[in-house]
Amino acid sequence: MLKEIIIAIQSYMEAHRFIVKHKLWQWILIPGIIYAILFCFGIYLFWISSDAAIQHLLNFSGLGKWMNAEEGGWLKFLFIFGSVILKLVLMLLYFSLFKYLFLIVGSPLFAYLSEKTEAIIEGKEYPFSLMQLLHDIARGIKLALRNTLWQTVYTVSILILSFIPVVGWFTPFFALLIECYYLGFSMLDYSCERNKLSTSQSIAFIGRHKGLAIGNGMVFYLMHMVIVVGWILAPSYAVIAATLSLLKTKE
């Protein structure tokens, strides 16, 4: 798995050289700017609503009332720290739902970008087909809904664990790992579909190459640390990097 994670990370650097060489900026900037605007708006909405959601969870569970009555400073510190951890996990849950919405909307463009990347490398053209495009969109939506369901199940389980002192401190790491896997999964599936793998075959194949998915998603999220520029470049870079990493694995 470690070798595949390294391959996925290196593929981002190769993706940058590939974009520059073949002048693909028009396919990078337009969806990237739309993504960055939606991302900023989404984070703002999350930030103003998350405190109320956490307070509701604490009151519903009875922990809020117990914490207010507790005089011990150490216990209060643990629960305040736990609230911060809970907010991080909720942010990852929100971000994953936002991500799938964007992947559904942008699936035709991402499918085309993945196809164009492979066509340039292998020196062959994929003729445009409206039926194939509609099939790709339907498959992308189906897979996004499937991944949303499973990731939500895992994240809610992690959310419950975040209430446990000490153990809950590590939950953001596990939530992020799951988030990276499913993001990379979506990016890799464009190539799997083009190679005539069914949805079940794609799930099995990517399950055997978890490192490629995790590595791809990992760099995608790290790019968000570069404010604005990283947000714009991350989605399309992730698609091209996923295509390159799968071609390398195929070789």
Provide a concise account of the structure shown.
The chain has 251 residues and is mostly helical. The protein has helices spanning 2-22, 25-61, 63-69, 73-122, 130-161, 171-194, 199-208, 210-222, 229-250. The longest helix is centred in the middle third of the chain and has 50 residues, at 73-122.
List the main descriptive attributes of the protein structure presented here.
single chain, 251 residues, mainly alpha, 9 helices, elongated
General description of the model:
- It is built from 9 helices and no strands.
- It is mostly helical.
- The protein has one domain (2-250).
- The longest helix is centred in the middle third of the chain and has 50 residues, at 73-122.
- The chain is elongated.
- It starts with a helix and ends with a helix.
- The mean pLDDT is 78.
Strand pairing plus helix content: what structural class? mainly alpha
Q: How many DSSP E strands?
A: 0
Shape verdict: elongated
Total of helices: 9
Mean pLDDT value: 78
User: What's the number of domains?
Assistant: 1
Helix content: over 70%
List segments where confidence is low: pLDDT < 50 over at least 5 consecutive residues: none
**H-E order:** HHHHHHHHH
Radius of gyration: 20 Å
Largest sheet: none
Strand content: under 5%
CA distance, first residue to last residue: 17 Å
